[in-house]
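Internal tracking record. Fields below are filled automatically when a chain is submitted to the structure queue. Please do not edit lines marked as system-generated. If the sequence contains nonstandard residues, flag them in the REMARKS field before resubmitting.
Queue: standard
Priority: normal
Entity type: single polypeptide chain
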Amino acid sequence: MNALEPSSPLSAGVRAANLLAQACQATDALRFEVVRELALQIGRQLNALVSLVGEEAVPDVLAEAAICCADLANLAACNAPDLPSDAAPRAVEAARLAARAVEALGPMVESRSGDPGSGDLIRDVRSAAWRAGFAARLLDEAAERRSLG
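SYSTEM-GENERATED OUTPUT FOLLOWS
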């Protein structure tokens, strides 16, 4: 699949949701059961959006996918530090994968948004990109601190 196809970043988001859900199975704590269910729900949403996209994907669908991926990146980043050490890398990878999906979706939304009312949509996608990027950076900084200390 070529990186310019809208379904590619959405599929990456689905993979990220599955990674986070797998990571949360490593513990039977109620908190991670809830996180797992949230990740699976976001994965189902993204999977449904995959069926709506094609070469002429509408910006609204792509923006919704970007927002879902940003939520997923944040969910993974907030919970990765508290997961068991054998499961945490999957959550970290989920956050990074979801953040990359948002990065890829942003330009697609902007290039397909031609009507004057699409300014809010573009702002939503830029906000999603910032949130997802921030989540990934937090994880990178935490990993760097652990390797230095």
